[in-house]
């Protein structure tokens, strides 16, 4: 009887470990992007992501997918959400070429952003060009995603939009590291201490809605926060980010997804002055 009990405990432990691994794998963005493509005519293109792997089915079947068009006729202006301001700190980070983008990943506690009383810890940042989200049908030149983990597997993303103009100071600091990485495709490069505050997520105006990750497995119920102030980036920086991954693609932006019945809130404190 003792032996049977021990076997049952061992079996349950293995099941729990495997379940935990599956949940983690399902929720996080893939770090090897070679299995899918941004070419709409490809068998591995965005419209077929959900067919490539069973655990990616949400990419085709989900009703809360991202990105979306943030249109004025679907936006509710709210004045009491509170400013978007992270409590970040410098931490060791690495750069990785994932196949279609460059990912900056913090190796330990780099701080958090408080949203509705919940702390979401920053984990990584990556870039898409052109922008994935649109505002009133307008597409921008670049979009940064800062991915945060919350309690019980919850995810929050801060999205930052850029238009061509002055170089982005943070990307200017990263250029040499990214160039070194592009020469050794597929590898991860330790770059030392990086403060997430340098990416400038602070905003008094932002859009918020419930969506998904924009790359497989397209996990849903992601809390999206799109910074309302559009930043600037140089044309050379945008081109450099694309060329560094060597995927021979001009874009790594997922097409717009149906908004369906979702509501989008726009936090704009200036509306308080009009009341």
Structure overview:
The protein has helices at residues 2-27, 49-52, 58-61, 169-182, 235-244, 270-274; strands spanning 69-70, 75-78, 87-88, 91-97, 102-106, 111-115, 118-128, 134-135, 138-139, 142-149, 155-164, 188-194, 206-212, 220-227, 231-233, 264-267. It is an alpha+beta fold. Helix content is 23%, strand content 32%. Strands 2, 3, 4, 5, 6, 7, 10, 11, 12, 13, 14, 15 and 16 form a 13-stranded mixed sheet that branches. Strand 6 (111-115) and strand 7 form a beta hairpin. Helix 4 runs parallel beside helix 5.
Order of helices and strands: HHHEEEEEEEEEEEHEEEEHEH
Q: Beta-sheet strand percentage?
A: 25-35%
- Rough outline: globular
Class inferred from helices and paired strands: alpha+beta
Average of the residue pLDDT scores = 87
Q: Termini, distance in Å? A: 73 Å
Per DSSP, the total helix count is 6
From the alpha carbons, calculate the radius of gyration and give it in angstroms: 20 Å
> Which percent range fits the helix content?
10-25%
Q: How many strands?
A: 16
Any low-confidence stretches, pLDDT <50, length ≥5? Answer: 1-26
The major beta sheet can be summarized as: 13 strands, mixed
């Amino acid at each position: 009887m003792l032996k049977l009990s021990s076997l049952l405990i061992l079996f349950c432990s293995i099941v729990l470990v495997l379940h935990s691994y599956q949940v983690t794998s399902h929720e996080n963005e893939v770090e090897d992007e070679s299995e899918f493509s941004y070419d709409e005519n490809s068998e591995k293109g965005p419209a077929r992501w959900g067919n490539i792997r069973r655990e990616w089915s949400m990419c085709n079947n989900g009703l809360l997918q991202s990105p979306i068009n943030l249109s004025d006729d679907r936006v509710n202006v709210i004045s009491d959400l509170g400013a978007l301001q992270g409590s970040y700190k410098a931490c060791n980070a690495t750069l990785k070429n994932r196949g279609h983008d460059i990912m900056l990943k913090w190796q330990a506690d780099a701080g958090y952003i408080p949203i509705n009383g919940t702390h979401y810890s920053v984990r990584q940042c990556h870039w898409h060009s052109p922008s994935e989200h649109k505002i009133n049908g307008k597409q921008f030149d670049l979009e940064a995603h800062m991915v945060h983990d919350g309690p019980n597997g919850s995810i929050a993303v801060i999205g930052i939009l850029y238009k061509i103009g002055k170089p982005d100071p943070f990307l200017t600091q990263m250029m040499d590291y990214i160039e070194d990485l592009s020469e050794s495709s597929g590898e991860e490069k330790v770059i030392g201490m990086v403060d997430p505050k340098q990416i400038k997520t602070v905003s008094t105006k932002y859009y918020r809605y419930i969506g998904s990750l924009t790359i497989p497995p397209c996990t849903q119920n992601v809390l999206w926060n799109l910074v309302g102030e559009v930043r600037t980036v140089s044309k050379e920086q945008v081109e450099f980010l694309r060329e560094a991954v060597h995927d021979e693609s001009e874009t790594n932006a997922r097409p717009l997804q149906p908004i369906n019945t979702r509501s989008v809130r726009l936090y704009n404190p200036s509306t308080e002055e009009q009341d």
